[in-house]
Amino acid sequence: MSTTIYTTPTCAFCKATKEFFKSNKVEYKEIDVTTDPSASQEMVKKSGQMGVPVVIIEKDGKEDVIVGFDQAKLTQVLGI
User: Fold this and answer.
1) What is the C-alpha separation between 2 and 21, in angstroms, rounded?
2) Do residues 55 and 24 make contact, with C-beta atoms less than 8 angstroms apart?
């Protein structure tokens, strides 16, 4: 399983999501879309959204896309 979060430096929900990951010992890759325009385009393509955070959880060849800080959905998909 791999977890990627698309963020911006000033996003409060991004910080909340990263704190949730840290408190649950979830390893993740962070991509700052303000410094990587191609990653920003990739995020929009995957999620259909311009807002952050966007979390992509890849497990068993399937991608779950979670937009915003949705603690219930994160807990379910990560099996926490």
Assistant:
1) 12
2) no
Question: Using the 8-state DSSP alphabet, how is residue 52 labeled?
Answer: S
Residues in the chain, overall count = 80
Q: What is the pLDDT of residues 10-33, one digit of tens each?
A: 999 999 999 999 999 999 999 999
CB proximity list for 66: less than 8 A, separation 6 or greater: 54, 55, 56, 57, 73, 74, 77
Task: Name all domains of the chain by residue range, CATH numbers in brackets.
Answer: 2-78 (3.40.30.10)
Residues 22-66: pLDDT tens digits?
999 999 999 999 999 999 999 999 999 999 999 999 999 999 999
